[in-house]
Amino acid sequence: MGDWLWYGGRPSVDLINTVRDRKLGGRETLRAPADLEAWLRTADLPGVPGEDDLRAARRLREAIDLLAFPAASPADRGAVAEAGDGLPRTAGEATDVINAAVAAAPPLPRLALDAAGRPVAAPRDESTAAALAVLAVDAVELLTGDDLLRVCAAHDCGIRFVDRSPARNRQWCSMRRCGNRTKARRHYDRTRA
Predict the structure, then answer these.
(1) Which residues pair with 149 in a beta bridge?
(2) Would you give per-residue pLDDT tens digits along the chain (193 residues)?
(3) Most exposed residue of 146, 169, 170, 182, measured as fewest CB within 10 angstroms of its CB?
């Protein structure tokens, strides 16, 4: 647990990145409901998930990935895409998964009155479905917006991210994680030759 990366630039992209090493076949980090609970807590989202919530989160994650990165090869999708759980295989299925999660979105903030008649914020929906709905709404904004989406250029990574660099030419998920390693490998190859 706690093997989370926050390089995505948006919550829905960070959810996609709960699969590591996609270019090497994929490594699932959401293996149990406790893993999803820890990820949600770290992402400041509510929920105490069960097995059904875990399956729903994985379906949502793969639906977002399928629509956000349609050119990704089946190999780049990793072993997770082979794992079953009713994962979407087409853009239409992915759209249905995201729309179903959006439908569970908590209502907009509401006003309530406390015992003394003073206005207070109504309690927030603390369910896992509400958390997944927040991620699905973010995915809708991501997929219909102008964000430039990329996959890390490192040969063994596969982390997805929103490129917000001034020149819109970011190559690596993180300079510290993959960029420096790639540059060092290139330098070693040049000096060895």
Answers:
(1) 162
(2) 567 899 999 999 999 999 998 888 889 999 999 999 999 999 999 899 999 999 999 999 999 999 999 987 665 655 555 555 688 999 999 999 999 999 987 777 778 888 899 998 877 788 999 999 999 999 999 999 999 999 999 988 889 999 999 999 999 998 888 987 777 676 567 787 6
(3) 146
User: Which positions ≥6 away from 100 have C-beta within 8 Å?
Assistant: none
The residue assigned the tokens 């994985």 is 58
Pairing of strands 119-121, 111-113: antiparallel
pTM of the model: 0.85
